[in-house]
């Protein structure tokens, strides 16, 4: 074994005497010699799995923070069953206690009226949501999913560091960690009789179903997320998928008649249970935080009417405040008639005089934290402060004592972590999850999310601060469980696999895959995903056309063809007009700079990068609807548009990069065609693409001024063929240099050419006819927006059938003008019919 | 995509007829009030949801004989209950397309003048602070919830400093609060253009201008900053037309003032810093809370309806028998 030094704290793996603890022996045996190259191999396998599964999390306030890979250490934390039972027992008690405290504070408030809790504790906490006072949730349960952060002191005892009572995060990451680690450490996992996590999620789902109002035959359960910018968005999507419930944002829901509904393509669909990942005060802009744009207006009314259950109950964030912690032992005796089984780390709330004095006199030994969850400030370690800083802190405490709490500084236990080719001890905090049972009481997930701090001495354990995570193995209480799980699927030692059949069966029973299932917001975003993908491609092709001529001036016709290309760039607002003349007169530094801006400058609204960023953002909003491969391609596009170093900005290097980008975009288009089921989601995406390509086709014609005398020359025809990806077809069919009439026919009228306008229109026509009936609008009416959109498409097809347009310049010009006017209107009509019905409607 | 647009709350109450001192009311007075809020939207609104505080709360000083809240178009659903502070609160949703929304409350009630009180007989303000900080009686516990920061009113050293001259050592609580009321009236200029609903208290304090809502908040903030429980009261004030002129119908406005707790015996005392007088039978109480945010008369969320105009009319009519 490699050298593994521990300090004065408790180490999970070795005793103070340096001996391996008994429950680690089997594991270390199965792990074998800690050969760095083998470990590296395993680590690579883990990384690959995480990458494949798209496991990420976001860091706030960090521009690079979107989509960080999830940091997982492959050595799990091991806990023997006997020890785990004590933890389980203690946490079930704690969950019940906190639930009773909430029931009192949101009810009669006897705890305050009898003087057991100081009024300031409740009344000065912004987490106390007066708007939901008196609204008793289904079955009196406030905490449906609860998590506690545990730490172990040097004497080996577990302590509760904090409670997560409103939207506990991390259970999904724990499950994901398990699926990865159980595969890369298959042997050790098998030998360890590790307790399975899957049953916990099954019971979580059952509990959610049980929250629906009685006699709801087919309850709709949703997971309400703040959206893709939330730090744990991956987990929201993952959990929703795993539990077989719909992932929604606030904008997807609406309240009518004090009921919550999901806005779908075919209308409003009732929602019965909301598992929320949105903080209390953001949930309803009408009655909670009025500036929240994430919530659902009227939700509190629906909750009060009992038509929907929100898990956890609105307002349950209150008991996350540390100010409550010192009172819990007393509250436990009073409310449950028991002693608290797992102690909380010692804390002193400065809102009380004696406690404040103790804290200010012992600053050097304490960690000072905000007493109320809403204050959200970082903990301060008294020991690390200078004398002056301590005095300043004391003054701050004395000014608003109720805002502070002093906490005993706990020496966290350490756990072996694979760092720099060796095992090193790192301080850990373990988060354990509990779910309410339909018939009362709580189920504990046997395992949890273990997080380590990034450095040996650092006592802040947080993913936001660069820590890592681990799987948590509760060892062998029921050895049969693993065998049952694996007997079905040989050679796939992942319990995640083993549980799939059950989950699928559950889903089949409860999911309704009818076409109206698609939330309107998702349809809207998929539509724009298609448009942005197509728009990026068109910008990219123009840029490539320019660079290919700049890098090879000797190419026949290069200079002549630059003229229409630059004209197009001007027309589409990619470069300023004066540069067009510059290009006509040759090349220059100003031109290069402007071109690079048109590629890399994200703040330039018409640049390639800006369009790709829009594509990426739109994709992020519907990530749960895209395959992992599609999402990977979209992230790759985004990376490929990051500004290049000076050396790789020479024309030839730029050209190579643009070629790569074309390939990536083609991969995206390919996945759309080959990997998406033909539901309404795909249809909206493809409508977006067809419409954008049609509009773009008209833009190319107008931008190169082919209908003007000036643009009627072979250089223009060649450029149009190139940008329309139709050069090969033209050569095959016509064997001549590009000529106006056949070029126009090929790009406008040929329904067999997937780049031609006629092709887009014929597909649009088919898509529109197949769309589900738009909600809230009488579809029989000739005035329905869908009918109007179909008419516009028909009209456009009529225009293309006029023989004159490919021969006569004037006929062409007027046709192009009409098309340019009508095509974008189709987009507006669709938005009106499908996306905005629930937002606004003209009378 | 169009997000739901929050509807701005009603504009700040601005009394248009400054109440000249009428005869001191002695016996109970009867009133009929009408409060009409009218929204005109630039485009059809498909759904609107509102929460209103427009009906009067129970109050030992006033007896409500009739209270009707009507909404046009007729809401598809409505719900009435008591809010956390015991004020009547109503929710309604109009779910058919509309370009106009009219909310009207009509109330008939009788208001008694407050029991006579000698402010110098109340306990010292320091004593009241102690009673509230360490409350033992049910009244004190109730009062203690009005000691703390709320959304629109946060205690601060600046407010404590402004309050200090009124809170001399050992001064009776009500006497000190009356002095504070007088000083706000003297030091601050009524100016309906100086502030909006969103103007922070620090700015009001710095510029010494504002309307009744600001002055009520200021009083509440000062009292909390010295450690006294204080609440914000919204209601109406009867206005007296100039002598020889008829009363103007619809020219009244919502009003607001502050209330301070002076111990179990004296209880809550309502003071109007905008008009420099203790609240009497000229004042009708609708609701109280920690600040305006708890009791705003009308607040709503609409879907659609770009741009809107808002018109509020209040009429307070004494009934002569």
From TrEMBL, chain A:
Domain Circularly permuted ATP-grasp type: start-end pairs: 76-452
Coiled coil region boundaries: none
Record Pfam families: Alpha-E (PF04168), CP_ATPgrasp_2 (PF14403)
Ranges that cross the membrane: none
Residue stretches making up the DUF403 domain: 518-835
InterPro entries according to UniProt: ATP-dep_Glu-Cys_Ligase-2 (IPR051680), CP_ATPgrasp_2 (IPR025841), DUF403 (IPR007296)
Protein name per UniProt: Uncharacterized protein
Lineage: Bacteria, Pseudomonadati, Pseudomonadota, Alphaproteobacteria, Rhodospirillales
């Amino acid at each position: 074994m490699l050298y593994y030094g521990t300090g004065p704290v408790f180490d999970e793996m070795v005793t103070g005497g340096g001996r391996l603890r008994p429950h680690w022996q089997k594991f270390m045996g199965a792990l074998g010699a800690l050969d760095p190259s083998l470990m590296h191999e395993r680590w690579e396998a883990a990384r690959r799995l995480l990458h494949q599964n798209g496991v990420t999390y976001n860091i706030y306030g960090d521009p690079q923070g979107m989509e960080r890979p999830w940091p997982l250490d492959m050595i799990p934390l091991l806990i023997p069953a006997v020890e785990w039972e004590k933890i389980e027992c203690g946490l079930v008690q704690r969950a019940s206690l906190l639930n009773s405290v909430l029931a009192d504070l949101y009810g009669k408030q006897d705890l305050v009226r009898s003087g057991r809790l100081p009024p300031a504790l409740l009344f000065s906490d912004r987490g106390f949501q007066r708007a939901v006072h008196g609204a008793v949730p289904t079955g009196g349960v406030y905490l449906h999913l609860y998590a506690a952060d545990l730490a172990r002191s040097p004497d080996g005892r577990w302590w509760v560091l904090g409670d997560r009572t409103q939207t506990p995060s991390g259970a999904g990451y724990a499950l994901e960690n398990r699926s990865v680690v159980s595969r890369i450490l298959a042997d050790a996992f098998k030998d360890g009789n590790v307790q399975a996590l899957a049953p916990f999620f099954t019971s979580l789902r059952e509990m959610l179903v049980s929250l629906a109002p009685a006699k709801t035959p087919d309850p709709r359960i949703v997971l309400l997320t703040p959206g893709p910018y939330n730090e744990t968005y991956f987990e929201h999507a993952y959990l929703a998928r795993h539990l077989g419930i719909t992932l929604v944002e606030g904008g997807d829901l609406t309240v009518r008649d004090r009921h919550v509904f999901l806005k779908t393509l075919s209308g409003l669909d009732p929602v019965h249970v909301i598992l929320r990942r949105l903080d209390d005060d953001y949930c309803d802009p009408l009655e909670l935080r009025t500036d929240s744009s994430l919530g659902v207006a009227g939700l509190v009314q629906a909750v009060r009417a009992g038509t929907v259950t929100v898990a956890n109950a609105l307002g349950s964030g209150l008991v996350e405040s540390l100010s409550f912690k010192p009172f819990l032992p007393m509250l436990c005796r009073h409310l449950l008639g028991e002693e608290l089984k797992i102690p909380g780390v010692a804390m002193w709330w400065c809102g009380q005089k004696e406690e404040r004095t103790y804290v200010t006199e012992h600053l050097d030994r304490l960690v000072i934290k905000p007493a109320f969850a809403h204050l959200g400030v970082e903990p301060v370690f008294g020991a690390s402060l200078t004398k002056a800083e301590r005095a300043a802190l004391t003054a701050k405490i004395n000014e608003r004592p109720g805002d502070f709490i002093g906490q005993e500084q706990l020496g966290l236990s350490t756990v072996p972590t694979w760092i720099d080719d060796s095992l090193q001890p790192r301080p850990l905090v373990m988060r354990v999850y509990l779910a309410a049972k339909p018939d009362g009481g709580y189920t504990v997930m046997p395992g949890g999310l273990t997080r380590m701090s990034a450095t040996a001495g650092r006592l802040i354990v947080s993913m936001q601060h660069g820590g890592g995570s681990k799987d948590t193995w509760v060892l062998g209480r029921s050895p049969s469980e693993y065998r049952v799980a694996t007997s079905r699927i040989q050679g796939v030692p992942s319990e995640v696999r083993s549980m799939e059949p059950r989950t699928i069966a559950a889903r089949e029973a409860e999911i309704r895959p009818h076409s109206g299932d698609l939330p309107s917001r998702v349809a809207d975003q998929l539509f724009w995903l298609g448009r942005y993908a197509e728009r990026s491609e068109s910008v990219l092709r123009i840029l490539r056309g320019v660079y290919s001529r700049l890098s090879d001036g000797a190419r026949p016709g290069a200079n002549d063809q630059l003229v229409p290309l630059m004209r197009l760039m001007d027309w589409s607002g990619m470069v300023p007009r004066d540069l067009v003349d510059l290009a006509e007169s040759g090349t220059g530094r100003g031109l290069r700079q402007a071109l690079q801006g048109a590629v890399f400058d994200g703040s330039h609204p018409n640049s390639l990068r800006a369009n790709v960023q829009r594509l990426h953002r739109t994709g992020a909003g519907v990530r749960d609807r895209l395959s992992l491969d599609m999402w990977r391609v979209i992230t790759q596009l985004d990376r490929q548009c990051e500004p290049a170093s000076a050396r790789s900005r020479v024309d030839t290097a730029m050209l190579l990069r643009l070629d790569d980008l074309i390939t990536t975009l083609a991969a995206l288009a390919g996945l759309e065609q080959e990997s998406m089921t033909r539901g309404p989601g795909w249809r909206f995406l493809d409508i977006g693409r067809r419409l954008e390509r049609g509009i773009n086709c008209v833009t190319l014609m107008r931008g190169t001024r082919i209908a003007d005398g000036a643009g009627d020359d072979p250089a223009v025809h060649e450029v149009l063929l190139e940008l329309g990806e139709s050069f090969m077809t033209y050569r095959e069919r016509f064997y001549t240099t590009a000529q106006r009439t056949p070029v126009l026919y090929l790009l406008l009228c040929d329904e067999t050419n997937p780049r031609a306008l006629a092709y887009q229109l014929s597909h649009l026509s088919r898509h529109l006819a197949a769309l589900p009936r738009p909600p809230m609008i009488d579809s029989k009416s000739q005035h329905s927006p869908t009918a109007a959109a179909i008419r516009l498409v028909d009209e456009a097809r009529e225009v293309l059938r006029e023989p004159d347009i490919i021969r006569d310049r004037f006929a062409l010009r007027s046709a192009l003008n009409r098309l340019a006017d009508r095509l974008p209107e189709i987009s507006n009509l669709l938005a009106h019919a499908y996306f905005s019905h629930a937002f606004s409607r003209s009378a | 995509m169009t997000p739901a647009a929050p509807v701005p709350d009603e504009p700040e109450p601005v009394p248009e007829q400054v109440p000249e001192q009428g005869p001191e009311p002695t016996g109970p007075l009867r009133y009929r009030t009408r409060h009409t809020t009218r929204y005109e939207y630039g485009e059809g609104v498909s759904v609107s949801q509102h929460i209103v505080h427009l009906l009067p709360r129970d109050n030992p000083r006033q007896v409500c004989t009739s209270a009707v809240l009507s909404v046009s178009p007729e809401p598809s659903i409505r719900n009435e209950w008591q809010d956390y502070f015991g004020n009547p609160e109503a929710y309604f949703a109009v779910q058919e397309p509309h370009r106009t929304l009219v909310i009207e409350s009509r109330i008939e009630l009788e208001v008694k003048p407050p029991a006579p009180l000698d402010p110098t007989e109340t306990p010292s303000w320091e004593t009241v602070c102690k009673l509230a900080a360490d409350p033992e009686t049910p009244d004190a516990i109730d009062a203690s919830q009005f000691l703390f920061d709320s959304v629109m009113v946060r205690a601060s050293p600046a407010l404590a400093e402004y309050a200090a001259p009124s809170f001399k050592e050992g001064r009776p609580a009500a006497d000190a609060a009356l002095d504070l009321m007088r000083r706000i009236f003297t030091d601050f200029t009524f100016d309906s253009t100086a502030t909006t609903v969103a103007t922070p208290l620090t700015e009001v304090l710095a510029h010494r201008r504002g309307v009744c809502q600001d002055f009520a908040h200021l009083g509440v903030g000062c009292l909390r900053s010295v450690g006294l429980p204080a609440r914000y009261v919204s209601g109406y004030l009867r206005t007296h037309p100039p002598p020889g002129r008829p009363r103007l119908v619809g020219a009244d406005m919502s009003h607001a003032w502050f209330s301070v707790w002076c111990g179990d015996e004296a209880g809550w005392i309502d003071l109007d810093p905008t008009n420099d007088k203790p609240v009497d039978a000229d004042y009708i109480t609708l609701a109280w809370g920690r600040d305006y945010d708890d009791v705003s008369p009308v607040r709503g969320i609409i879907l659609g309806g770009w741009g809107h105009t808002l018109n509020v009319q209040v009429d307070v009519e004494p009934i002569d028998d």
